[in-house]
Amino acid sequence: MRKASIKKDPPGQAAKKRKGPRTLPYFNRELGILAFNERVLAQAADERNPMLERLRFLCIVSSNLDEFFEIRLAGLKEQVRIDPTHREADGMPVGEVLVAVRERVQAVLARQYQLLNEVILPGLEAAGVNFLYRPDWNPALETWARKYFDEQIFPVLTPIGLDPAHPFPRVLNKSLNIAIELEGRDAFGRDARLAIVQAPRALPRLIALPADLFGPNAFVLLSTLLIRYADELFPGITVKGCHPFRATRNSDLFVDEEEMTNLRQALQGELPQRHFGDAVRLEVNHDTPGHVVDFLLEQFALDEADLYRAEGPVNLARLMQLADVVDRPDLKFAPFVANHAGLLDEHEHVFETIAAGDILLHHPFESFDPVLDFVRAAATDPAVVAIKQTIYRTGADSELMELLIRAASSGKEVTVVVELMARFDEETNINWAARLEQSGAHVMYGVVGHKTHAKMCLVVRREGARMIRYVHLGTGNYHPRTARLYTDFGLITADRELCADANEVFRQLTGVSQARKLARIWQAPFSMHDNVMAAIRNEARNAQAGTKGRIIAKMNALLEPKVIAALYAASQAGVKVELIIRGACALVPGVPGISENIRVVSAIGRFLEHSRIYWFENAGEHVVYLSSADWMDRNFFRRVEVAYPVLDAKLKKRVFNEGLAPYLRRDAGAWELKPDGEYIRRAAGPTTVQERLLASLGKPAAPGTLKLKAMQSALKGRRHAR
User: Fold this and answer.
1) Whole-structure pTM value
2) How far apart are CA 107 and CA 101, in angstroms?
3) Three-state SS for 313?
4) What CATH number belongs to 135-331?
5) Catalytic annotation present for 610
6) Which class does domain 18-110 fall in?
7) Disulfide-capable partner of 439 in 17, 56, 103, 408 (CB 3.0 to 4.6 Å)?
8) Which one of 453, 472, 479, 529 is the catalytic residue?
9) 598 and 474 Cβ atoms separated by less than 8 Å
10) Contact at 8 Å (CB) between 414 and 386?
11) What CATH number matches the domain at 347-517, 3.30.70.270, 3.30.870.10, 3.60.15.10, 3.30.2090.10?
12) Helices and strands (H, E) in the chain, number of each type
């Protein structure tokens, strides 16, 4: 595995440099992201995982790399163009970063296709799941394939023969295309040399063969059919070769904040152009001849360094569908039923239950249904007068959004802060915003320049002569499907100060005012960074005074230089720092005199580790915060985020015992980050952390404890998950 870059001072040079975070050791962010994908790829190689799940991990890496090129690498290329002398936070010149990233991606791709061709496809074939390529075709398959092509594919294809009257077409971002080499003259006397066939988005990339003819679980790729019958598109012309290719484009959206008057309208105008941004990567089949490659690179204004050859399908992410459509439980992770525990089943007692004590939910081991029950009760209870909700990602099919629409339609005051700039969910959120407005809801788009990433749902209920607030605060999105795939915590509470703080955040998002000091919540971009820094420094002071100092933090990424510098200082003061960082980590652990008291681990498994937890020893009076915010520049300074405390002692213990301690065990099977940038996987016990949590938390509810509505909701959630 390639080592990440470390920025260190040469011996004797530290004193000559200015003091501050830049003089300390850092890992490179982009290489850290790729290192995370290498750890995901290791799941595809892990023989303990079922074969279809191994394929799924392989496809996740491809999907992650797509986004990496669309956003991160596109940004690197732009930075090189604007200022080639620019250095990244770790000190590497941006040009060197670009070279290192490309080399590392090539290595990841080589490993991907090796696993696909030598392990996963043969393993699936041995288990009775087959991809039928042309050499495998018998007369029956040939007959079926020809009929399918003629009826389902041929009518929607538009082959484009390239000549001065037919220029190279606009190629959609990440779309499947075939470059077809031709020989001969057509009816108009034109020389036929090269044509482009674009696969319409309406056509499925993975095609299931009829089970009655070819047995269950037999498939053919669309690209295979396009290549097999390419000659049908050019009658009388010789087809010399067919070469699939795929271009990845810069997909970041740009809106002019000074000129913009309506964010939704601005985005609606910008979204169609995402498909046609500047190309940043060209993928071709491994045997595509040089002259075809050179032609394609020229069309996309790319260099040889932007070329990636595939030893198989040029879009591995499309194979993800296979894991969903093949009904072979023996080739997948064992199904589970999230524990519902009957928490909020009784509709008429939902708010009494919350008032009686805080409710902590740990997804996916515990069901997302109580969150829906909370919103469902708010939408239908005549005593509820207002609902305020933030939406970052929720999916195109969302019961929660339908409940908000129902509440607004019934006359309740519904305010929804929809983040229209949630990357790659912009169109879905625009559609929901329109529907919410039509129902009578107040729809806001947060603060331009600051994404609203906080996860909050506030309910105001008239109880006698008083207005009482209830709030759900989460670390993850209001998305029932990802609630079954991501690990997250949620807190439902009637605590007056937490509810008042949440209401104040909503007031800032919908109105115009100065930020007020909050009682309990740490809020970005105002107080969160200062509070995190203060909590770290407090541990350092305690350690220097002879009291035990300890910090445990769990998140997706750790990149903010000042926080990293504070953690280094805490380590030097004797604080034990344990970090569970799923993805990129710029902090370098285990450096003598700087970070020898810091340990960093990364947990990769069946579920995506997504919860953010900040835990501080605080001289034995533990401070525990949950949040949607990673310790990154963007979360601290360019997003609206909240971190909220867990106040109940029993719930604090649950967060520690379920969300932190299991991942720090030496037999957890986590990856440990070493000072040289290498991640070393520790030996796992008989079961993984997530398997142990499933066994202890994700048990089916006892018969009779689920009411009919909750049961129907759980079943609906499982349908959505499929």
Assistant:
1) 0.88
2) 10
3) coil
4) 3.30.1840.10
5) no
6) mainly alpha
7) 408
8) 453
9) no
10) yes
11) 3.30.870.10
12) 23, 27
